[in-house]
Amino acid sequence: MGSPQLLLLSGIGPYNNLKKLNISVVKHLPFVGQGVQDNPRATIVLQSPKPFNTSSIQSVGILNNSELYIFSSSFVQQQVPAYDSKSSNMYGGVIFEKLAYPLSRGNLSLISRDPRDNPSVRYNYYSNPEDLQKCVQGVKIIAGICETNSIQKFAYKDKSNDSRRLHFIGPALPNIKDEVAIAKFCRENLNTMWHFHGGCDIDSVIDKRYKVKGVDALRVVDGSTFRDAPGTSPQSTTLMFGRYIGVKILQERGDST
Predict the structure, then answer these.
(1) pLDDT for residue 233
(2) pLDDT tens by residue, 57-93
(3) CB 102 within 8 A of CB 63
(4) How do strand 106-109 and strand 34-36 relate by DSSP bridges?
(5) Angle at CA 56, nearest 5°, toward 198 and 64?
(6) What gap in Å lies between CA 27 and CA 34, rounded to an integer?
(7) Residue 20 CA: distances (Å) to CA of 10, 17, 161
(8) What's the CA dihedral at 108, 113, 114, 117 to 10 degrees?
(9) CATH architecture classification, 40-192
(10) Per the CATH hierarchy, to which homologous superfamily does domain 2-37+196-252 belong?
(11) CA-CA distance, 111 to 60, in Å (whole number)?
């Protein structure tokens, strides 16, 4: 998000928006800050009656012919003891689906000329109905996972009738037969993967050499140039991208070292 913000602060962006903040316009590029995206997710958290170790977020499944990724993680949280009681641990498991290639897009704009002020960013999650429908599909997949023997091992026994049920920390799964309820669950339990991208798109802000259009000796080489984000963490993609452009710059200068 820093790259489109810095371009705008430097006078590179939509003319009218810059003039409203009394920023001298260096180059009118109307699409700076436009088309920003984030990968939304829907999450459930289950409490476990059995202890286990903490694990980081892992990709455990990708749906066939789909942009839906299923992830999991686990955690141990120390419970604050009551008066004269012993401390204890709470064990929890997280299952969530992530939309890898959302169609919904938003925008970034400045709220002031102060670089220390965060810009205003709207991702417009689920503004495209296809994104919301994919979330509904993903929640149904999570519900199916919760019915498997692997997850049912972590269900609690109901002493009154000897049945078993899962304990949710926070929102429980909605009625899976009610797509309206699932869509409501998706909206109200929206989470981010912090994989923000866009705002400096190729052809509208930068050229195919990643040079800012109409500006000499300035390139943007980071996730703001991505039209889509990878299904998992973009860190390795961004590192490879930086290496690739660095080599290209050296080649252009005739330096092969």
Answers:
(1) 81
(2) 988 888 887 789 999 999 998 876 666 667 688 999 9
(3) no
(4) antiparallel
(5) 60
(6) 16
(7) 14, 5, 67
(8) -20
(9) 2-Layer Sandwich (3.30)
(10) FAD/NAD(P)-binding domain (3.50.50.60)
(11) 40
Range 151-165 average pLDDT: 84
Average pLDDT of span 125-145: 95
Helix axis angle for 179-188 and 129-146, nearest 10°, is 100
Question: 210: closest CA among 161, 166, 244, 180?
Answer: 244
**Cα first-last separation, the chain:** 32
**Token couple for 154:** 């972590």
pLDDT of 256? 53
CA atoms within 13 A on the CB side of 182: 17
pLDDT in tens, 164-201: 899 999 999 999 999 999 999 999 999 998 899 999 99
Taking phi over 0 as left and psi of -120 to 50 as alpha, with beta for the rest, 144 belongs to alpha
Q: Copy the structure tokens of residue 61.
A: 């499944």
Q: CA 109, CA 86: separation in Å to the nearest integer?
A: 51
What is the distance between the alpha carbons of residues 149 and 53, in angstroms, rounded to a whole number?
A: 20
Catalogue the active-site residues: 195
- From the list 35, 34, 38, 14, the residue with the least C-alpha distance to 25 is 14
Structure tokens at 74: 């686990």
pLDDT for res 188: 95
CATH 3.30.410.40 maps onto the chain at 40-192
Which residues, 6 or more positions from 87, have their beta carbon under 8 angstroms from its beta carbon?
78, 79, 80, 81
User: Which region among 77-86, 93-102, 139-148, 247-256 has the lowest average model confidence (pLDDT)?
Assistant: 77-86
